[in-house]
Design brief:
- By secondary structure, the chain is α+β, with helices and mostly antiparallel strands.
- The chain has one domain: Ribosomal Protein L24e, Chain: T (Roll), CATH 2.30.170.
- The chain is about 35% helix and about 30% strand.
- It has 3 helices and 4 strands.
- A two-stranded antiparallel sheet has the order 1-2.
- Strand 3 and strand 4 form a beta hairpin.
- The longest helix has 15 residues.
């Protein structure tokens, strides 16, 4: 399973450990991923996602999963989130 946020696509970054003597060794910065079930008002069901803590705060700030996905542009969303966004738009149009 990839270490990638299902909503924003935030993934692993790389950098250096720098010692006091300025020796550099490569390291990985892993995103803070959390398994959550977010409720969709338009779809009337829960959706299990693996999202970063920052994305979870943003979802709560914007008023839920539906509001977050509808406001977010498609190029910043992961493919899974784009599919959920299409489902929500179809449910709201009906």
């Amino acid at each position: 399973m990839a270490r990638r946020c299902d909503l924003t696509g935030k993934g692993v970054m790389v950098g250096n450990n720098v010692s006091h003597a300025l020796n550099r060794t490569r390291r990985r910065f892993l995103p803070n991923l959390v398994n959550v079930t977010l409720l969709s008002d338009a779809l009337n069901r829960g959706i299990k996602l693996r999202v970063s803590a920052a994305a979870l705060r943003t979802v709560e700030h914007r008023g839920g999963l539906d509001a977050f996905l509808l406001k977010q542009s498609d190029d910043t969303l992961s493919p899974l989130a784009q599919g959920i966004k299409k489902e929500i738009r179809a449910a709201l149009a009906a």
